[in-house]
Amino acid sequence: MKPVYKRILLKLSGEALLGKKKAGISSSALISISEEIKSVKEMGCEIAVVVGGGNIYRGSQRDKNVIDSVTADYMGMLATVINGLALQNCLEKKDLDTRVLSAFEMREFCEPYIRRRAIRHLEKGRIVIFVGGTGNPYFTTDTAAALKAVEVKAEVILKATKVDGVYSADPLKSHDAKRYEKLSYMEILQNRLKIMDSTAISLCMENNIPIVVFNLFKKGNLKKVVCGKGKKTIVSE
What we know:
The structure is a single chain. The protein is of the alpha/beta class. It is built from 7 helices and 11 strands. The protein has a domain at 7-165: Carbamate kinase (3-Layer(aba) Sandwich). The chain has helices spanning 27-41, 69-92, 115-123, 141-151, 185-190, 198-207, 221-226; strands at 7-12, 46-51, 98-102, 111-112, 127-131, 156-161, 166-167, 179-180, 182-184, 211-215, 233-236. Strands 4-3-5-2-1-6-10-11-9 form a 9-stranded mixed sheet, with helices on both faces. A two-stranded antiparallel sheet has the order 7-8. α1 (27-41) crosses α2 (69-92) and α4 (141-151) runs parallel beside α6. The longest helix has 24 residues, at 69-92.
């Protein structure tokens, strides 16, 4: 198999790192994700990753009388740093050169995000993990993924989920749910399909970056998707 894309951006939710745990980071999930990334790296792809933090802290579940929304978002940003460092460590144990770039300064732990430096890391074959979201409250890590994809000129955003595409209803709850092969950006926005938030979809639409929604938890699936195969939903113009 040959890759369809040269430079990809993989969007991982914090929940992807949960595995079978209810909270925190699962070692087995980390190892599985790292092996999937390595298989794609060995084909010569340039890989950037944006990771969420929902496995550690979800602002939507906070006590609103105690923690305000801005503080909750900052806490979520810190959670992404923890996840990024864990993923870096696991990738490096598999002999993959990796850099963690943060949207805000944490020099003791990771590099500050500088666009040209990020692109240079990718050109040198390093896996780049973006943490800290956009660095601002009120923006999701989905929006951060779209923004970083535009900035580093990624050819595609690979949105990792627990199901193999976008469905008309929740496939885990409805047996009649229909999987879409292809959708347009406008169909996602008009039908309010919750694969990514509207800001992220709009950014991708304006910059013509396709989004591929796929199941990360089927072994070998990431490699198939990068090669244009496997079950998935493609969101494009």
